[in-house]
Structure formats: structure tokens, C-alpha cells
Amino acid sequence: MDHKLYYADAYRDVFTAKVLKQEREEDGNWYAVLNQTAFYPTGGGQPYDAGMIGSSKVINVEEIAGEIRHYLETPLTETNGELVCRIDWERRFDHMQQHCGQHILSAAFEQLFDYETVGFHLGNEIVTIDLETETLSEEDAAKAENMANQIIIENRPIEVKWVTEEELSHYPLRKETKVKDNIRLVIIEDFDYNGCGGTHPHRTGEVHGIKILSWERQRKNIRLQFVCGNRMINQLGQKQKVLLGLTKLLNAPETEMVQAVTRLLETNKSTEKALDQARDQLLDYEARELLAAHTDSAPMISKVFQNRSIQELQKLARLMTLKEETAMVFVVSENENRLQLVCARGAGRAENMKTIMADALAFINGKGGGNPSFAQGGGEARVSGQQMLDHLHAFLTNEGEHVR
């Protein structure tokens, strides 16, 4: 373990190392292996460290086949002698805060409610743990959060200790260790004893604080989201900025924000309902007006529109064929580079709208469907709306026997 400097000192952010080898994988990614490293490789739920090796940026670190591979944005130009390596300290310390916070929160849930942590993920924005329970109440979550923050306030020391498998019986472990050799324990005395290979601060106070954000059921577990330390402070600032902006927009204090948004949504819902009713009334008026313009006993109504939705065309066609059972309706809308069309007939006619639509769609490389009395579809604007209507009328005139 001597070459893994992050185990000797998690606070070490600058070191020198020799390049043992630099190679390129089949996928084209360059990586370097050093004689010693403070770069933590992805593992145990904790992401890799970023930083620099010489003048090359480290973009990933993985432990593969017993060697720690430092993946580089560009290959090293100098591989002889010792190179200065620098850890992205802000990223490293963030991971230390989040990982330690996870230990504390998981221990709190286990001590209070015997909820074991069966999953852990340290993401870029939030941290998640999977608790072995199917339910979690607001009250229980608050109790665990309060206990975790109390441990942080007490600023308890965090001890890292290497033990053998035989020595494990001397410690009240929170869960069984996966490894059997070179076992590394992270200990918060009289609170949490846990096998872990991650990086952690020296004292719980450096976590600064823990805030549970939300939780949801995942299969038979509860997946809980939380943040610690600087993430908590940054997110509080972001949320406060948004909240202040909303108080100005809604003209309501923070404590009444939920009620203000609820009222706004209810008003919006009422407005949308009124608009829908108004649109339906206009469509009904439009249908009546189109029918009134055709006084023959079996009217054929056709019209080209601009930028009308297929839903509007469908409603308009249905209204006309319900009001006049002997009517046949062809409506087309020119929408930028597409044509939308509806073919419909009333109950007093026998033409097959599905067959007519199939012919029309083939004309414009379109797609659609329907039944013998009502069909709709759309396709490329290879022709104008009026040319489409002319095509439909020609089809009826020349191929009428195929649409009955």
C-alpha cells in the first residue's frame, strides 16, 4: 500500500512521481502508471480524483489488473525523471466531506431504526444511499438528520486503522467487510466502525453539515438523496436565489410561496379550461359557417388552412359530419414543410375514407390511418394544400368504384 499516498495522507494535494509506463488503449485513451500516487481511483461508491501530472490533465483514474491507471487528456511529453503532480483539491475535499457524511448518516439510520445501507453513490450534485426499508416517514428522516448533525457538531475524531481479519472481532462493525486482507477501518469512536477504502477528513466537524433533500422507493428499498459540507452551502445559496426571485414574481412572502403557486396553478387551469371552451365554440361556429356555404343535399366540403393542428382539423371535420350526415369533408393544413389532412363522411354516405386517405398519403410520402368513415394523416409538403384537394377530388371522380 506504500505507493497509494491517498491512504497515508488524504490531505496531500501535491507530490512527485516517476512514470513507470505510458500506454494507449485500443479505444485511443492514453494512460500513465506512476511509481506512487495520491490520485484516488474510482471505487467503493467514490469517484476518482482529477488534477495534473506534469502539464497533462488527469480525466479519470481506475485501478485495473493491480495497477492504478491515470487517464490523460493529452499524453505526457516527458516521461523521464520525476514529475510534479497536483490533485484538484476542491474536488478531493468535496469527496471527503460527502463520503464521511454518508458514513455518519448511514450510522444514524442504523442506530435509530436498524435500517441498513445497502447502496451508496457519490454523484456530481447529490449523494444517494439505499436504505433497507420500504417506507420512511418525515419524522424518522428528521431524527436521523438531527443525530448526524449532532455528531458533526461534536467534531469527533475520525481514525483510520488497518487490521487483520482476526482483529475484526474487536470492533462493532456496522456491516461485514468485503475484503479479507489489508482491511481498512474508518472509525468514529463510540458511533461508527466501518470497513472503507475512501478518503475522509480527520474530524467530523469538517463535514460542516448534512441535509436530506428527498427520498423515493426503489423496489424494496428507500433511495435517499442528501448533500454535505460545501455542497450544502452552495445549494442553499442557489435555492435562496430562486426563492427570492419567486417572491418578487408572485408578490408573496417565502412562507406563503406554496399557497401562492397553488393559486396561480388553479387560475391557470381555469383559464385553460375557458380557452378550450372558447376554441370549441369557435370551431362550432366555423363548422356551421362552412356548412351554410354548401346548400346542396349531399355537400362536399373542402378547405385549405394555414398552420392548423391535426386535432383542430379532426374536431372541425367531426362537427360538420355530425351536423350534416350527408356531408363529405376534406380539410388540409399547410404547416411549414408538411401537410396535415383529414377525410371524413357523415353516416348518410358510404365512401371509404380509409382508402381515400391511403391514396393521398402515398402522394406525399405520409403516414396516417383511420376507418371507413374517418381518417387522418400527414406527410411532406410535396404539393400545395389546393393541389392535394384537387388530387382527392380526382381520385373520387376517376376511381369511385374503389372507395365504396
Task: Describe, in plain words, how this protein is organized in 3D.
The chain has 404 residues and is of the alpha+beta class. The protein has 8 helices and 18 strands. Strands 1-2-5-4-3-6 form a 6-stranded antiparallel β-barrel. A 5-stranded mixed beta sheet has the order 14-15-16-18-17, sandwiched between helices. A hairpin with a 2-residue loop joins β17 (367-371) and β18. The longest helix is centred in the last third of the chain and has 36 residues, at 257-292. The protein is elongated. The mean pLDDT is 93.
End-to-end gap: 85 Å
Strands side by side in the biggest sheet: 1-2-5-4-3-6
Indicate the overall shape: elongated
Cα-atom radius of gyration: 35 Å
Q: Indicate the proportion of strand residues.
A: 25-35%
Order of helices and strands: HEEEEEEHEEHEEEEEHHEHEEHEEH
Number of β-strand runs: 18
